[in-house]
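for the record, two folds in this file. i put them one after another cuz i was lazy. first one right below, seq on top, C-alpha cells after. the second one comes after a little note so u can tell where it starts
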Amino acid sequence: MDQPRTTRRMFCATALTAAATVLLTSRGAGPAAALPSTGTPIVPAEWESHSGCVMAWPWDRTNGWGGLLPQVQAEVAAVAKSIARFETVLMFAEPGTTADARRQCGPSVTVVEYPVNDCWTRDTGPIFALNAARTQRTGLDFRFNGWGNKYPYDKDDLLPVGVCNYLSVPRRPVDLVLEGGSVITDGQGTLITTEECLLNPNRNPGMTRAQIEAALLAAYGASKVIWLPYGLDNDLITNGHVDLVASYLGPARVLLHTQPDTSSPNHTRMEANRSVLLAATDACGRPFRIEELHQQPHFQVYGALVDTFSYTNYYLTSGSVVVPTAQEPDDAAALCRYAELFPGREIVGIPARTLAWGGGGVHCITQHLPAVS
C-alpha cells in the first residue's frame, strides 16, 4: 500500500503548470459574458430548493491520498449515491477515470469527463446565484489558489468553466481568491465568514479587509458580513473555513460548533465566535438564534491525528441531511441532534474519516445547484 503524504497539509513547493488539453479552456471562453438583465443575482441559502449537486472524483494518489485513495473514493461515492436519491448529482471526473467513477458511483450519478485535481467542489466549483425572478442561474467564478498555494490547482481553478459550460449557465468571473467553504449565506443579505481565513495573506495579500468585504458583498448580492474570529484549532489546510464551525439552519438561525471542554483549544475559540453572533444582528436587523453542537471526535488515520473533523460539515437535500460520521461514539449524539434540528427529514450518516484526514467533510465535496422557477 502506498504511503500517503500527510493529507493536503503537504503542500506543493514547485510552480504549477496548466494542463495542455482542449478541455481546459481559458476563463474568457464559454458563456461567461451574458448576465441576467433582471438585476444583481443573489446567492440563495442552502436550505432553499436544489435541483442538483456538483461533485468531483478523487483520482490522484500523488495529490496527498497515496494508499488511502480507495477509501476516499468509497466515501465520495457513498455521499454521491445518498444525495442522488433526492436530486441530480453531476460527478466531474478526470479523463481516463470516468469508467471507475461510474462503476463506484452507480447509475444514479451522472459522470462528466473534465480535468480535475481533487474532490473539493465546495471550494473549487462555481457558486450559483439566482436573478430576482429566480428564473436564471449565474455561476460565480472566484479565483482558486489551492488554499493559499498549498496544493495543485491548475485544473481545479478552471472547474467553474467546465461546470457552467456543461449546464449552459452564464459565468461571471470574480477577481477575488475565495473558497465556497469560507462563506455561508442566508440569501437575505447576510454573510458569515471567519477573519482567520478571509484575512489570511495567502489569499488576497493586496486587499484590505474593507476591500475584501466589498468584493464579497457585491458578488453574493448581500449587504452585511459578520466576521467570526476563528475556525477550528489546527486547521492548517483551509485556515479556518466557516463550514467547519457553523452552518445556516434558517433565517437568523445558526448551528454553531461549541466546545464545553475547557481543556480543549477550541473552547476559547468557539466561545469567541459565539459572543460575536450573540452581539450581532443580521442584514434584516434580526438577532441570531444559536443552536449548539458540542461533539467533535478526535481519532487517528494512518497514524496521524485527525483533530478537525466536523459534524457541521453536512449537506442538505429536500428530504435528507447527509452528515459526516467518524465511526466514533460521538456519532450517535450528533445524529440525534440533527434529528431534532431537521424533523421530517431522513438523517443519513456517511463515514467520512478519510475525508476528515484530508481536511474536509461532506459539505466540502458538494456544491449545490439552486432550483429555478
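(here's the note) second protein begins now
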Amino acid sequence: MISRPFLSRGLTALLVAVAVLPVGPAVAVPAPPAPAPGSAPAPGLASGPGPAPGPMGDLVPGVRPAPSQPWSFDTPDQVLAPQVYTPSKKEDAVEPADALQGTYDLIEYVPLNDAARKVACSKLTGPYQRQVEYWLKLKVDGKQSAADCRAIRAFQLKHKIKPAIGFAGPVTWSRMQLLSARKNPNAAGKCPVRTYRVTCVDLGRQLTWVQKGKKVVYAPVPVRTGRAGYATRGGWHKVYWKHKNHHSTLYDTPMPYSQFFSGGQAFHAVYGSIYTTVGSMGCVNMRLADARKLWSVLKTGDRVYVWGRRAAG
C-alpha cells in the first residue's frame, strides 16, 4: 500500500506534499518485533490464542508467522479473512500506541514548482478547482484567478491546511465535503434508514458515519477506502469480529481498533495520513481518534452499508 504523488490534469510537474509525512499506511510507530523462538508473544499481538493454523499455515491476516517464515505472501487483504478468536482481557487491556504529533495534519498536495519556490499564492488551476469555486460561492469557471486564490487561501488558513497557497487540491476539497456533511450527512438518502444502527460508508465523499433511524449517533469523519483494483466492497455487510490490537501479516503493519465487516476488510486506524491520493488495499482507513470512538460505538453484528465510487487512485 504505497502511495504515489498526485498527478494533476494539465500539469506536468508531480504534485507532492510540502511536509514530509508518512504516505499511505506507512507506520510512524514501529510494529513490535516478532517474538523469538520459545518466548511469549508481545501484548496486543494476535499470535497468542486462536485456532490452529489452517491450510495457509500462519500466513493469514492478523497472525504473525514464525521468525523463519517469509513475509512474501501477497494476497490482497480482502481475499483472506483473519483467524477469529476471543482476545483475552489482558490483550484487550492494551491500548494501541498514539500516533506521532502531526501525523494527521492537513497537508495539501501542491505542484512541485510552487512548493520549491514557496509561492504565497498559486496561479495554477487545481484538480478540484470547480468544486472548490462552487463551495466558496465564487464564479465557477474552472480557472484560477487572483480572487479565487485569495478566497481558497483564506479557507486553508482558517482550517489549518498547509501550505496555504490557494491551490484547490484533494485535501482542501475533502475538508469542504466533511464540513458540508456535518449537519445532515444522509441528506441525499443514499444510506438506508433502519431502526437499528447502520454504519454508512460513502465512497464518493470518503466519509463514514453511524445512524440509527434518522438520528446520527456517530458524526461523519473522513476515511480512505480501497484503491483501484482493491475496492472496498459495496452493499450490505455485518461487523463480525473486533480486534483492538490487530496486526496485518499480509502487509506487516498494525491495524489498531480493527472491526472486520467483509472478509479481510475492516474499519481501522492507520499511523499515517488518510489524505493520500491513492487508496487503501480495501480497508476503511481512519485517524486513530476516529477509529477509537467508532470502536466504542459499534458492536459485533452491527450492519454496514457501503455505496458509491471512490475517485481514481
